[in-house]
What does this fold into?
Amino acid sequence: MARKNRNPVGKNVDPEAQKKKTRTLTLKSSDGQEFSISESAAVLSIAIENMVEDDCAGGVIPLPLVDGGTLARVITYLNKHAEDGASDEEKRKFDEEFVSGMEMGVLFDVVLAANYLDIRGLLREVRRRIADRMKNKSVEWVRKTFHIESDFTPEEEEQMKKEFAWAWEGVDSDVDD
Amino acid sequence: MKKRRIGRKNQNQEATWRTANVVSDSCVSALPSSLLREIFVRLPVVVVMECKLVCRAWYKLVSESSFTDNYGRNSPFTHLLLPMNRGTADTTSQLLYLLEISENGGCIRRPIKLQLPGRMKRRFSQFVVGSCSGLLSLSICKPGVEVICVSNPLTGECIELPEHERDRADKSFVLYKMGFSPFMDKFKVLRISCKSWNDSRIEECEIFTVGVGERWRSLGNPFTRLCFWADWISLNGALHWIAQDRGSVWISTFDLAEEKVGRISHPPGLELDLSTMNVALFRNQLSLVDCSVPSQITIWTMKEYAIASSWSKDVILRSWFPPNVHVNKLIPVERLHNGDIVFGHCADLISFNVKQKKCCKIGGFGVPRIASRIMTYAPSFGSLTEDTKEVQWSTINV
It folds into this structure.
């Protein structure tokens, strides 16, 4: 924002319009891998944009909470969404395919990264995908997938299952969704 | 009777067994709770309820009133209830269906068995008399006795309101109306009695604050006359209905916190008529369904509450509906993402495609005749009260 113009002394700065497309940033994952990305793609992440504006982006941006594999995926997403001339329809289709093959564990990594980097579109897409996968699954499946151990006593669990008995009854459905 | 409190905002009211060991670290999940909340909001009601069984931390997350509010605003589903008003003869039927309409217009129907106080399970007839902010008010009666219960159908909780002393020879006609005041965080039930079916003059009006009051309080006679078929809706802490007295007709309000009667402006230039108009809750906004012109149905919606100039209308021609649809029984309930308007029509759901000017039945469930009409419904996942919960839990094993 206001601090945008406060650049380190001695650095030659391109005009605003050119700057983002031509300049590349280097992102460093938790396991030390480095990735180059155009600034215009990187700033789709609000967190990175803030770092750039705060001039933390002089050299390499360290992302200690994101591992290399996840960061590579996130960068694929960012590049697509920063692509010149990519239509909304194309991006939507890309999003669909981008998340469809991912396992739950990968989805978790990506959603955590999107949350940390504040990438709204990706966050929304992955959240929706996780919710879709949770439908028609058993409580045991959810516990296993989310790495949760039940802390209810067997008696409590038994009573709760009785309480929610309606949920296990037959479902009439017209449209599968 | 033990004094009961009902405060959806008060998180301290979770039953003790539940709060005993709830430490956020007791359940190490793959995701932080802020992300889980946003994921849960996208789930169908039944999956949200299953999430409560996963661990204590998730139970607490789903039970928070802020989650229920968030779900009401952001769920991709529209929820409706279809109560099956059951008589004394049939004690095995389901009492309720939860209808869940997805963004693409697909509909899933799920039966819910209502949990009733033990002594009321047999040989009583039950009627759902109202639905408001996730709770239902039920009338349970047999000759000479009528009890009103307030129930959360998802959690199975049920609060029995005090029986009303009533002379058996008393021929008066009684109506119950329920509303929710977000300012007080309280539900209130109105009991309005008239002389008889034929005489709409109100004899007595009483009010009960759910969870606080121990008895019905008299309100004197704040209303003039009662129209039996006028719908009452609860919105913004007040009840709304069309009232009429000596030739004048207006939209009347009853502020639930102040317990005062007021008026709200109707669409400018429209002459209200009780026989062809009714209020409805459409997209969580005050709306007026107007069938006064025989060839069309007009849905008036007050986009900004209490702003007279914000009334806007959708006009739908009568001829766009099949001949067997009774236009005056259509209740608009939601506008889907594709622009279609969903109506409740008795026990059916009708979806109207605005662009193609066509309508089709959704669901097509083959609803039994004893079904009453469809009600709007906002799922509430939290605990109603602490002590009713305990009562209910202790009676389950009896």
User: Anything to note?
Assistant: The CA atoms of residues 38 and 91 of chain A lie 18 Å apart.
